[in-house]
Amino acid sequence: MSKSNYITRSGWNTLDQELKFLWKEERPKVTQAVSDAAALGDRSENAEYIYGKRRLREIDRRVRFLTKRLEVLQIVDYHPRQEGKIFFGAWVSLENENGEENQYRIVGCDEFDPAKNWISIDSPVARALIGKEVDDEVKVHTPSGLVTLFVNKIWYEK
After folding, report:
1. 3 state SS of 96
2. Yes or no: domain 80-156 corresponds to CATH 3.10.50.30
3. Transcription elongation factor GreA/GreB N-terminal domain: from which residue to which, for each copy (predicted)?
């Protein structure tokens, strides 16, 4: 399954800021450090030079990825027509069969974060929730088996 190209505006801004930081601040600093280390002589045993070159490759790889990814990402902003139903960007309060309640936000695959309870639009739970309303019962096939969830609340960041 391929990953979707949807992202929230705040997610896009975060990736764009990372790209600008790497390109305009981090890369010039590391390039200068590598140049200074190279001027010291023998590069084969120069840890600063070897580490700096490795770090430059990491930065360049991330810059290439972010540049290509930002070109294809589609920002999805909140729209009043979304109210009352679960769509991309929604915060959802779900209750499982045991009565345990959890809150999740449906975001793009480039910004999902389990620590914040942000789940990817490509996840089985998010796919099952799209289009549902408050008080709907949702059955989701997860790796641990079939799970039933109840939608208690839906809201959006505006």
Report:
1. strand
2. yes
3. 5-75
The span from the CA of 105 to the CA of 119, in Å, is: 6
Assign domain 6-75 to a CATH class: mainly alpha
pTM for this prediction: 0.82
Do residues 117 and 106 lie in contact, with contact meaning Cβ atoms separated by under 8 Å? Answer: no
Q: Dump pLDDT digits (tens) for 135-147.
A: 999 999 888 889 9
pLDDT digits (tens, 9 = 90+) for 28-55: 999 999 999 888 877 777 888 999 999 9
How far is 63 from 55, CA to CA, in rounded Å?
12
- Which two three-digit tokens encode residue 7? 């992202």
Contact 129, 86 (CB under 8 A): yes
